[in-house]
Amino acid sequence: MHRQLIAPAALMMAFCSGCGSAAGETAGLDPTPVPQKSTPVLMFVGDSFTVGSGPVPTWSSYAAETARLLGWQPVIAGAGGTGYINKGRVGRSFQDSFDAELSWRPAPDLLVISGGHNDRRWPTLGVRRAAARLLWTARARWPETRVVMVGPIWLADAPPKAYAVRDALAEVAAREGVTFLDPLKQRWVTGRRSEVLLPDGVHPTFTGHARLAQWLSAALGPAAVHQGP
Hints:
Blueprint: H1 8-27, E1 41-46, H2 48-51, H3 62-70, E2 73-78, H4 94-102, E3 110-114, H5 124-141, E4 146-150, H6 160-176, E5 179-181, H7 193-196, H8 206-220
Parallel strand pairs: 1-2, 1-3, 3-4, 4-5
Helix pairs in contact: 3-8, 5-6
């Protein structure tokens, strides 16, 4: 069986014909670019719950997932073991993380300060002072940015001192006119503990982070960006 050969000239004519057709189709299109919608920026500063721990990387943490659910651009700062006072192994507090990683950036639409879990061994008076100082610093740097505080995160078996830290932070938030969200009021374990807790019994699994993100994104909502202080 012989294959039919197409002359090079015929190929060239067909190619040029297609080019002319494509040129004719695009000639009438408006080349004016369509402006992109501005995406709100959501910044976080926090501890290992915020930046991820164990098998859960930062981009799968509840902070990143919250931004995805809201359709915002996340910037996540902080480190495991840190708190308002506690500096952990990295040797820096929330204030230090804010100063080093966030304060030099353009103002975000929303700043979430999340933590207190690692401050339970410190006097609550010191925690209150450190939290107030961080709020004052953020507001002085970004006067128009809305700030939300999230209290200590315990998915199960929170010790009494966790509630003392929670109350201290809630007091600061109320005094400064900042929204305070309390994870200790939520029920995170609805079935097997291992579904939401890693083997250490403290940090969230992927599912635990997803539940935190669903709760936080619903609490923040699109209106949070535009709501006044």
